Amino acid sequence: MFADKDISKFNNIETPFYYYDTDLLQKTLQTCATAAAPFQFHIHYALKANFNQVLLQQIKDIGFGADCVSSGEVRRAVEVGFDHKKIVFAGVGKSDKEINEALDLDIFCFNVESVQELEVLNELASKKQKTAQVAIRINPNVDAHTHHNITTGLDENKFGVNSWDLPECAEMLKSCPNLKFIGIHFHIGSQITNLDVYKNLCVRVNEFAKWFEDKGFTLQILNVGGGLGIDYHNPDHQIPDFESYFKIFHEFLEVKAHQEVHFELGRALVGQSASLITRALYIKKGKKKNFVVLDAGMTELMRPALYQAYHKIENLTQTKKLETNASFVKYDIVGPICESTDCFGKEVEQPESFRGDVFAIRSAGAYGEVMASKYNLRDAIRFVYSNEV
Ligand SMILES: Cc1ncc(COP(=O)(O)O)c(C=O)c1O
Ligand SMILES: N[C@@H](CCCC[NH3+])C(=O)O
């Protein structure tokens, strides 16, 4: 819920823009850090969720590490000041150039996703006379019970080494003098709201850890990835239940005294901290449908078009006046882009809306700004921070 003073502020700013609530972000980060502390769990923030530098600064300051999926993200993490000994690099398709850059930056660990990648990494590290620390990303075949487009830990997914390739992987590790094997890594999917899924993951991690240890390897790191979801239906001041989440790993993961448990959270840390603020350009009344045409589209927030993802939409101008205007209408809320999927919600009940009304599309902090595109040669996306206006 936005305060009246926020809505008045928005009236004077050119739309569309991302509005970042830096206080909520701070509270979310602090809650996560406090929940992880009793178990000495290590948090790496997954930059792919949002690599906005202002947010990254806050995240770095709380002491989290960085989980990156490209050398661009590795570079961004270094520029912002993340300790290079807390930077990990995962990704199913790291190019030689990216690997070389990450080797030069002496990152903490490469999360390697195939046997062939081990070979390439060893060769590139040897040319630089370096030793790269590696964790093997294993595909555990655990169903994350999330949208099928954002599940990553099933046999049919491209990510990680499949269990049947592990013997070959173990042989390769033994024969690579420029690699230091330090752990195993998992990430089963994103926007996971059924926490029981993580119990299944813990069982599989325990099995794989034992498999490696039985072969004489020492595992220093158990990296269980991220994926904790947020409640898109109730965005107000919402902080995910980090305590229950970490407790599951504390209870179900078998952690040896010499081992560290690493997490890679993205959405849960930043998702609720932003709204996309946009204005109604036109109201179209049809025979079968009414439309609100906004000045933001799938180019600013792609998730609804890409995954039919739900984001709560609020007409801030009319909600403010609701006592005097109790008439509700169902609208398809669409953007200006030349695509039929450019739609933020169908048959969404809203107060009767008018040209110029300011709308908020909530829970847009993760996979929002970073997935914006220039399609239709749109203007670059703008942002506003709560502590600056
Ligand atoms: C390897 C890896 N780690 C961490 C994340 C972060 O995921 P989430 O934003 O769902 O926490 C992702 C994205 O799904 C990922 O692919
Ligand atoms: N972009 C996705 C999440 C992908 C997570 C990265 N593997 C989303 O918006 O929900």
TrEMBL record:
<dbReference type="Pfam" id="PF00278">
    <property type="entry name" value="Orn_DAP_Arg_deC"/>
</dbReference>
<dbReference type="InterPro" id="IPR022657">
    <property type="entry name" value="De-COase2_CS"/>
</dbReference>
<protein>
    <recommendedName>
        <fullName>Diaminopimelate decarboxylase</fullName>
        <ecNumber>4.1.1.20</ecNumber>
    </recommendedName>
</protein>
<keyword id="KW-0028">Amino-acid biosynthesis</keyword>
<keyword id="KW-0663">Pyridoxal phosphate</keyword>
<comment type="pathway">
    <text>Amino-acid biosynthesis; L-lysine biosynthesis via DAP pathway; L-lysine from DL-2,6-diaminopimelate: step 1/1.</text>
</comment>
<feature type="domain" description="Orn/DAP/Arg decarboxylase 2 N-terminal">
    <location>
        <begin position="33"/>
        <end position="270"/>
    </location>
</feature>
<dbReference type="GO" id="GO:0008836">
    <property type="term" value="F:diaminopimelate decarboxylase activity"/>
</dbReference>
<feature type="domain" description="Orn/DAP/Arg decarboxylase 2 C-terminal">
    <location>
        <begin position="17"/>
        <end position="365"/>
    </location>
</feature>
<dbReference type="InterPro" id="IPR009006">
    <property type="entry name" value="Ala_racemase/Decarboxylase_C"/>
</dbReference>
<dbReference type="GO" id="GO:0009089">
    <property type="term" value="P:lysine biosynthetic process via diaminopimelate"/>
</dbReference>
<keyword id="KW-0457">Lysine biosynthesis</keyword>
<comment type="similarity">
    <text>Belongs to the Orn/Lys/Arg decarboxylase class-II family.</text>
</comment>
<dbReference type="InterPro" id="IPR022653">
    <property type="entry name" value="De-COase2_pyr-phos_BS"/>
</dbReference>
<feature type="modified residue" description="N6-(pyridoxal phosphate)lysine">
    <location>
        <position position="48"/>
    </location>
</feature>
<dbReference type="Pfam" id="PF02784">
    <property type="entry name" value="Orn_Arg_deC_N"/>
</dbReference>
<dbReference type="InterPro" id="IPR002986">
    <property type="entry name" value="DAP_deCOOHase_LysA"/>
</dbReference>
<dbReference type="InterPro" id="IPR029066">
    <property type="entry name" value="PLP-binding_barrel"/>
</dbReference>
<dbReference type="InterPro" id="IPR022644">
    <property type="entry name" value="De-COase2_N"/>
</dbReference>
<keyword id="KW-0210">Decarboxylase</keyword>
<keyword id="KW-0456">Lyase</keyword>
<feature type="active site" description="Proton donor">
    <location>
        <position position="338"/>
    </location>
</feature>
<dbReference type="InterPro" id="IPR000183">
    <property type="entry name" value="Orn/DAP/Arg_de-COase"/>
</dbReference>
<dbReference type="InterPro" id="IPR022643">
    <property type="entry name" value="De-COase2_C"/>
</dbReference>
